[in-house]
Write a structure and sequence with these properties.
With 497 residues, the chain is mainly α. It has helices spanning 5-35, 44-51, 54-83, 91-126, 137-162, 164-170, 182-185, 187-212, 223-264, 282-377, 382-465, 470-496. The longest helix has 96 residues, at 282-377.
Length: 497
């Protein structure tokens, strides 16, 4: 498989780091062992030359070369996973790549410790069950193992820092049950324990050297100077390992801080973007919790958006219903005005009829007087009879005209009755439309209450989140304000209806 430029760069850095740390550990170990070796009666210069053992250097070079191939093979599944598109990655290969990132520190520590134990035993037996330096096997094993353990810690921190970018590319946003980096979780205990063992072992070795050295032995002669030298080397080692550990935490904290600042900003807040987990420890668990909180916020905002959309749809329906009701009311007003016109016409017609009846009454009274007069003079004059007949004909004409006026009045009354029935029908339509409007207004009031409750829940969650939820608390307050305004407007519309 052809590696990507990123994979080749990290492989080179990892192999180079392992080689440099191993050479440095070997030189320090040999320098310390030969400097305080009671079996070598040489001065300081001779002890330094003894520390530069070519056989050990060649052996470490061979070991580092083989280790380079092992590191490449160990990281190969990780590079293969990164070369695969995210939508085509298989869960099995993804879990394997994630476990490689988790188990790398322990793998380096175990491998390095086994390697040094093997090298010490090999040199012990090749030299006829004696160490080439002349030191006892137990002291060589104690010094080499403690110093190799320190070198393993340094290598684990350095190479793990190189894998920060690949871990980000893996896009790990949640941790599985078995994805726990015990080394990173316990490093606060491992670092002081390892450095304490190194300090105890080296101080004991120096004390042993001054306890058994011959008076005429060349080389170091001051116990105080030896202790100061061990203290300086110990402080340098503790500082460097602590700095590497802090640097490892700083990378994850920086990513967390950037995400929290983005969430707190109204311009750059993005709930679709989650934080990549780099450290599989307490910091990684905090990162996982933040990702779960972001997912919860995203779900809540989606529900709120749906509620707002429903509210807008209901508001649009209410507006259309109000426009329809206004149109119905205009039609009713027009019908009422027409009815008023007809009623006025009927009233005028009724007034005319009343006048006609009064005229008829007056004429009947005149007729009665005439009849009385005619009754008195019927026997006297036939001319009076003729005049009476003429008057009767006149009365008949008037009665016919009254009958015609009454028929017109009856037709006008029937027309008015029809208009009144039509007005009653339109009023019933108005009542039905008003009922529909009141039902829609109740739905809006219910939605406003639910939105207010949802906004209160969002505010409570934002309060629980502390400063991380301050940005969302503003959104919750605005939504609650909108819900209260909708509820007030619904009450106003209900009173008007």
């Amino acid at each position: 498989m052809k590696l990507s430029p990123l994979a080749r760069k990290i492989n080179r850095r990892a192999v180079a780091s392992f080689f440099i740390v191993q050479i440095g550990t070997l030189l320090v170990s040999e320098f310390f062992s030969q400097m305080y070796n009671p079996s070598r009666n040489v001065d300081f210069g001779g002890r330094v030359l003894l520390a530069l053992n070519p056989k050990l250097l060649v052996f470490v070079l061979v070991i580092c070369t083989g280790t380079g191939f092992l590191i490449r093979a160990y990281l190969k599944p990780l590079w293969r996973e990164l070369e695969t598109a995210e939508d085509r990655r298989e869960p099995k290969n993804s879990r394997r790549a994630r476990l490689i990132a988790v188990r790398l520190p322990w793998s380096l520590i175990i491998y390095n410790s086994v390697l040094w134990i093997f090298a010490i035993i090999l040199f012990y037996f090749l030299n006829g069950k004696a160490m080439p330096s002349g030191l006892p096997f137990s002291w060589v094993l104690a010094i080499k193992l403690t110093e190799s353990f320190a070198g393993s810690l340094i290598n684990a921190f350095i190479i793990d820092s190189y894998l920060k970018e690949p871990k980000q590319l893996l896009n790990i946003t949640s941790l599985n049950k078995h994805e726990r980096d015990r080394f990173i979780e316990k490093k606060e205990i491992i670092i002081p324990m390892a450095t304490g063992l190194i300090l105890i072992t080296h101080l004991a070795f120096v004390s042993w050297f001054f306890f058994i050295r011959a008076p005429d032995l060349q080389g170091p002669s001051s116990l105080l100077t030896a202790f100061v030298l061990v203290g300086i080397l110990f402080e340098a080692l503790v500082f460097y390992i602590s700095w590497l550990s802090k640097k490892q935490d700083t990378i994850q904290f920086t990513i967390l801080d950037e995400q929290i600042l983005r969430l707190a900003s109204s311009d750059s807040a993005d709930l679709n973007r989650k934080v990549a987990i780099l450290n599989f420890d307490e910091t990684g668990r905090i990162t996982e919790s933040l990702n779960l909180y972001i997912e919860t916020l995203q779900t809540m905002i989606t529900e709120i958006s749906r509620g707002c959309s429903t509210l807008k749809e209901n508001d649009s329906g209410l507006t259309a219903s109000m426009f329809e009701a206004a149109e119905k009311i205009r039609e009713i007003n027009s019908a009422v005005k027409n009815a008023e016109t007809v009623i006025e016409d009927q009233t005028a017609t009724t007034g005319d009829s009343t006048t006609a009846v009064q005229k008829i009454t007056a004429r009947i009274a005149d007729l009665h007087a005439a009849v009385s007069q005619q009754t008195g003079s019927v026997n006297n004059s036939s001319a009076g009879i003729e005049q009476m007949i003429a008057n009767i004909q006149s009365v008949t004409g008037n009665v016919q005209r009254i009958n015609s006026a009454c028929q017109d009045l009856l037709a006008a009354a029937n027309l008015g009755k029809g208009k009144i029935e039509e007005s009653n029908t339109l009023i019933e339509h108005v009542v039905e439309s008003s009922t529909m409007l009141m039902d829609a207004n109740k739905v809006i009031s219910s939605i406003a209450a639910q939105t207010n409750l949802l906004a209160m829940n969002a505010a409570i969650e934002a309060a629980h989140a502390g400063s991380a939820g301050s940005g969302f608390a503003v959104v919750a307050d605005e939504i609650r304000s909108l819900a209260e305004k909708s509820s007030k407007q619904s009450s106003i519309v209900n009173n008007q209806l």
